[in-house]
Amino acid sequence: DAYNKKLLSNKNDLETVKKLINDMKEANIQPNLKTYNLLAGSYMRAGKQEGVLETLAEMKQLGITPTVSTYDTLLQSIRAVGNIPFIMDLMEKDQIPLTQNSYEYLVHSMVWNKRLEQALDILDSMKERKIRPTESTYSHIINGCIDVDETELAYKFLKDSEAKSMFVPRSAYIRTLYACARSHESNVEELWRKVTGALNLKPLEGLCMEVLNYACRAGKPDLAADVLRVLTQSKITCKEQHFAPLFEAFISNKDWKSALNIVDVMVNAKIEPEPTFMEPFKNAIEKSASDLDDAYMAIENLREDGKKVHISAFNTIVSACAHLGDVKRAFAAVTDAPKLGIQADIETYNAILDACARSHNKEIAEKVYHEIKATGLKPNADTFFRLIAVSCQQSDYEDAFGYLEETKENNIVPPASAYVLLVRKCARERDSRARIAMEEMEVFGYPVTNELKKYVETGGMAASKIFTKRPRHFAGGKADI
């Protein structure tokens, strides 16, 4: 008993346990059942399954009959499922019945080897024998479902555990919520309320982001708003990526005012939305004139509520007007900007010029450029590109060269796409300045392709991919030349 007490106090130190047993044997003290069970347990905790099997064999040689505890220790140590039939056979010979714990260890072994079906078979066997699964058994099953992406099944067993009034580890709720959010399951919101409400847990930022992404895809702005609340309570500094899913969730529901409220919240938090942030809004409202009407009404309502309308939101609406080819409406919106407390910037005017380029409306384009000069705004490369584009659409395109010169006078390198438009226009008009424009392209380091040269030589008759695939919108920068 003295040795067994020492073994018990050192059960987590396998080497010490083995030394104590050797000391017993040298002192001619015969190890008993408790001794071997303690040794088997030490091997199990050290992850040495073979050691547990050797201990079992030695017990049998000495005529010591293994008990349920011995076999449970052996089952608990199993990692290679191929050993299970052998162990079950030994248990049958020794007339050792499977207990609650025995089944738990078998399930754990199957789950560890990602054999969910076998684990479920074992669970069914328990039900047939009317053996109530342990709480850990259910936890293993839930984890096993998640490990093989059976998230719906994981949720089912989680709810089954609750129905049986079993204790479910908090980690199981967290893992299930994370898996369901990643798989976009419909039960995410319920799990989120459970985790943050009843369990009063504070999910980490990574889980919050997964739930935010789910809320975005599912169009659940209330859920997304609650995630942001939890992030704030956890003293996590919110960044643009935290707001984007909520913004997109409102857009998905065509709740334009709430979506634009998010922009207001961001700006108040000193988070300036990047241009890409507004893309979902633009993509949504440019699909129909009615959506555009509703979005414009939303910014008017925000203003009536005493909130500031951010310039990026306003510019997006003007850009949507351009996409729909409604240049007059785009220009009218800019005229109304002061009423909304908005001061138009160069991107606002560029959006109108984009509409002009789409509709070949040089008259309004010239008015816009005049207003740019009057307001003292500095035009950029996009401004001049759009002016050149509109000019090249006219029979009298002389202004295009004037805008090209103004571009350079403003210390702006004309974009390659502007030169391509000019060269192509001159080629079609048999204007010798096409070659001058190509020479200037090379001065600025833009390559002149053989296709473009051939286009000039044939007076615009040469067929080429670059001429058949015209861009849907006018944007300054690189062009396929």
Automatic annotation (TrEMBL):
PANTHER family registered for this protein in UniProt: PENTATRICOPEPTIDE REPEAT-CONTAINING PROTEIN GUN1, CHLOROPLASTIC (PTHR47936:SF1), PPR_LONG DOMAIN-CONTAINING PROTEIN (PTHR47936)
Q: Which domain of life is it from?
A: Eukaryota
Keyword list, A-Z: Repeat
What protein name does the entry list?
Answer: Pentatricopeptide repeat-containing protein-mitochondrial domain-containing protein
Whether Repeat counts among this entry's keywords is yes
Q: Does the keyword tRNA processing apply?
A: no
> Which regions does the record annotate with the repeat PPR?
32-66, 99-133, 345-379
| Pentatricopeptide repeat-containing protein-mitochondrial domain boundaries | 205-333
- Which InterPro entries does the annotation name? PPR_rpt, TPR-like_helical_dom_sf, TPR_mt
